[in-house]
Amino acid sequence: MSRTILFLSAETFxxxxxxxxxxxxxxxxxxxxxxxxxxxxxxxxxxxPLLMLVDVIEEDFQxxxxxxxxxxxxxxxxxxxxxxxxxxxxxRQATLIKRQSDGRRDDEYVFSALTNPQRISPWLEILHSRxxxxxxxxxxxxxxxxxxxxxxxxxxxxxxxxxxxxxxQTYFHEQRLHFSRxxxxxxxxxxxxxxxxxxxxxxxxLKSLSLPPAGETLDVYILCHPDDAVPLQSKLENERDLIYxxxxxxxxxxxxxxxxxxxxxxxxxxxxxxxxxxxxxAHYGNAEHTHFYLLWQMRRVLYMLAGGVALAGxxxxxxxxxxxxxxxxxxxxxxxQTQSLRAQTQSIQRQFSNGSVPAADMKAAVLLARALxxxxxxxxxxxxxxxxxxxxxxxxxxxxxxWRASAADAPxxxxxxxxxxxxxxxxxxxxxxxxxxxxxxxxxxxxxxHGYSVSATALPLDITSKGSISGLGxxxxxxxxxxxxxxxxxxS
Length: 492
Fold this sequence. Notes:
The protein has three domains: 3-58 and 116-289, no CATH class; 297-341; 377-488, Gyrase A, domain 2 (2-Layer Sandwich). Helix content is 41%, strand content 26%. The protein contains 13 helices and 17 strands. It has a five-stranded mixed beta sheet with strand order 3-2-1-4-8. Strands 11-10-9-12-13 form a five-stranded mixed beta sheet. A hairpin with a 3-residue loop joins strand 1 and strand 2. The longest helix has 64 residues, at 291-354. The relative contact order is 0.07.
């Protein structure tokens, strides 16, 4: 996308349209009603952000040391300085140079402003009326510091010539802007004389500000065409604390990968290309000047968010479609099985419809079967708890197990009880009769806890008052044999 930079000098106002390949189309507008009308027509279909570069004499710089503050206190202090130095112009900015390393560690600021707002405001009003986004208002001193990349000199005076503005002299300390002045020229032939005449004056002004400090060297870098470097070298002599350096414009352009070929010392194309490629954050525009640029940025962010949401929706839809296809493949055998079961069900239903048994008889048969189930229970249900108890008493061995239904033993249950006859033996009975009888007693209690009613029909040894001790020597007692009557009742 091409970039459009508006270049305002003391005499001219130009629009430079820089394409992707570096070529530039220039349109010049006169500082009158006709020129402003032509500029307004040019902006009718222009909706991309613009940059404005200003190179005028009415740019002032003030060095100031202020207390180190934060937040709203710092903003209030800067606003007071603006009112002190530049009350009549809205085009102003404050640049922090550094924080002092000793004493109170105050901040060193450069306060600068464009002191002739009437030169800029008419063009800004046209931009505002056309709702054209203006990204910022920059001056040549603000962007020329990037041309010193790679130069490690502490004190630098950079000289550039803009054909439609004049000779610009800008002082940098440790690559930070401190001061700049513009000298108007009447023609190209005066460039060499202007440099040789104005550089000593600028040096004297800097000395009045103790810049650079006594004993330190001021390096003067002149950005020019090689054809102008030769006569300059013959007129400018180095001194102990003043050294001249000559920077070839074409070499600087190659170093910054600019494709423009310079035929004279006019550095305007280089400055415009530098601004188009790398825009500084600080500029002279305020929120009112950049209002439509902020709206343009917000609209761009919304477009990006909308695009992101649309892309996420497409990805989600694709994933849902893929999952749906996967689920459909998985459901196909289930659907086939469902259809098969439905067909079998319909076949069975058709057989039911051909049967001769009335529905009332079928209902009576089902109810009767349910009632009979209450009178006849499967062995597993009857013997399950008994098996669980036997696992806890490993000394009990089962010889014979039988069960039968008994209505006499049913109460309090309304359904017949199951009478279980258990013939078994207690191992190790001959070694300890008492402990074996206690073991058998615990076995009976465990059965009772599991819901059975238990009574002993025969024990290995009858120790009751009704029993006889004549059985101590027989073989059955020695083997610990016993018989239990176990009654299981319906849980209802």
